[in-house]
Each structure stands twice: as C-alpha cells, then as structure tokens.
Design brief:
The protein is an alpha/beta fold. It has helices at residues 20-28, 71-83, 103-115, 131-142, 161-170, 189-204, 243-250, 255-272, 292-295; strands spanning 6-14, 46-52, 55-61, 89-95, 118-124, 149-152, 173-174, 214-224, 230-240, 275-284. It has two domains: 6-174, P-loop containing nucleotide triphosphate hydrolases (Rossmann fold); 189-295, K homology (KH) domain (GMP Synthetase, Chain A, domain 3, 2-Layer Sandwich), CATH 3.30.300.20. A hairpin with a 2-residue loop joins strand 2 and strand 3.
Length: 300
C-alpha cells in the first residue's frame, strides 16, 4: 500500500547558541540560517524546506530565547513564542553540557506546556559529554513533559540527524506540498544577502560589535556582462551603534570590511549560482535597536 503524503510546519525553539540554525542547515543541506558561535544569531523567523519521498517539512528557525535588553530583543523573543502556537510540531533544542534545566530552558518548557503541541526534544552537542550525562538529562526532561521523542544529536559528528526528520514525519498529518520540491527556503535573495553578510560580521568582529549591527540591501539588480553572462550588482549598508564600532568594522585600511565582503560574496555565489559584484558601506545609527523604523523589519 502506497504511503500517504504528509506535510507540516515545525518550529525550532531553544536558548541562544544551542545550535538550532546548525541543525536546520544540516537537515536541509543548504545554508539558510546564519551560523556563528555567538548568541542571538537568528533575528528573523527563517523558513527552511526539507523535501522527502513522502513528506514536506517546513522548518521555522526562531530567534534564540534570551532576556531582552532592547526593543529588538523584545520583538525577537515575542516572535519565537508566537510562531510556535500555530505549528504542527515543536522541536525543542537543549545542550548536552547542561547539568540541570536552567532558567532559559525552563521558560521555553513552560511555554511548550501551555501550547500543548507535539514536541520533540533534541539534545545537541552529545559529542562533548559522556553517555551517563546524556542519560541523566534525558531523565530530567522525561519527568517534566511527555515528549513525542527525545533524540541525542551532534551536528559536528553528524549523529542522529536523520532521526529528527523521521520523528517529525511520523508526527505530521496527511497534507499537500506547500512549496515546489526544488525550493529549500522562502527567503528572498535580498534576505539571503543580508543574513550572509551579518553572519560573516558575527564571525569576524569583536564581541561588543556584532549584535549592534543591522545589514540592509539598498540595491540589488541583475545585469549582464559584455559576453552576456548574468551577474548581480548589490549595494549594502551595515548600520552600527557607534563611531568606534564603525572603525572596527572597516578595519585598518579597510581590511576587515574587505574580509567580510569577500567571504560573503564567495558564499553567496555558491548559494545563488551567479557572479556577484558586492559593495558594502558602513554607517552609524545610534540606538537603532530601540528605533521603531528599524524594529518593524523584524516584526511578524
């Protein structure tokens, strides 16, 4: 008997820096979410699409849950919880290195209990601890909530990643494919450019700078060379909070900005399959993280 096709939306919840975006990128096989070893990498809600033989899974990578310190932070946390109210399955990601259920994880757990959604617990980074510690953590969470399943994984060692997809599919209902099977994200080219540049900045800049930046594409035009080869002309502005930050982003003789631009361009050309002419400027917008004009870009 032929299996019926299933589809559904899945939100991925977790504290900042637990590896949510890395898990999604591994499952999709494409880079659709910014990855950096710093908190609050994902600011907007990103959809990533996994097409399987008998299902289509649409992931929603939410911003990491943290204690907000600005209007932007308020919106990020609000977004994370809001999208999880209407999904088919919730994937809750925690770290294997935790000794207990901390405040951040407890907050998310309480929201999951309220929503009463089918939830899969994913314990990430199991390559960093022994099996006894993972077993203890599993028991802690089992006492708290009736999870559909608990899956220990490692994105670094590619442990149990397919099991996440299997469990999600098992808990989806029969339904149509919402997106074309060739698609892996509903992000626009503009959003992919902004996310990629911000990711490079997050990886390369000092800790005090990255989360005070906002990347905006001002111009994105497809053109052709004299030989009729298509390419993108892209103009981007990186906004930062202070003049001192501007100097750090640009670097001595423009070295840091050049590095950010080069790495971003290389990634984008692979991602989009087209040559890119990328120009980046840096401007100061003091306290933009509390400015409604900018914050509206992040609201659902």
């Amino acid at each position: 008997m032929e299996e019926k096709f299933k589809s559904g939306f899945v939100s991925v919840l977790g504290r900042t820096n637990v590896g949510k975006s890395s898990i999604i990128n591994k499952l999709v096989g494409e880079k659709v979410a910014a990855i950096a070893n710093k908190p609050q990498t994902t600011r907007t809600v990103i959809r990533a699409i996994v097409n399987r033989k008998n299902s289509q899974i649409i992931f929603i990578d939410t911003p990491g849950i943290h204690k907000p310190k600005s209007k932007l932070g308020d919106v990020m946390v609000e977004n994370a919880f809001e999208v999880s109210k209407d999904v088919d399955v919730v994937v809750f990601v925690v770290e294997a290195t935790s000794d207990e259920i901390g405040k951040g994880d407890r907050l998310i757990l309480d929201k999951i209990k309220e929503a009463k959604r089918t939830t899969i617990l994913v314990i990430n980074k199991v390559d960093l601890v022994d099996k006894a510690k993972v077993a203890k953590l599993i028991n802690l969470y089992k006492e708290e909530y009736n999870f559909a399943s608990i899956i220990p994984v490692s994105t670094v060692k590619n442990i149990n990643l397919d099991a996440i997809l299997d469990e999600i599919e098992k808990n989806l209902k029969e339904g149509p494919a919402y997106y074309d099977i060739e698609e892996y994200t509903d992000q626009t080219t503009r959003q992919l450019v902004e996310e990629t540049i911000r990711e490079k900045a997050l990886k390369l800049l000092n800790d005090e700078v990255p989360h005070g930046i906002f990347v905006e594409v001002e111009k994105l035009k497809k053109r052709k060379t004299m030989e009729n080869t298509p390419f993108y002309n892209i103009d981007v502005v990186i906004y930062c909070l202070r003049e001192s930050h501007k100097g750090i982003i640009i670097g001595k003789n423009g070295s840091m900005l050049k590095k950010i631009g080069t790495y971003a361009r290389e990634d984008l050309e692979k991602m989009l399959g087209i040559k890119i002419n990328l120009k980046i400027w840096v401007k100061v917008r003091a306290d933009w993280i509390n400015n409604e004009k900018f914050i509206k870009n992040f609201k659902l």
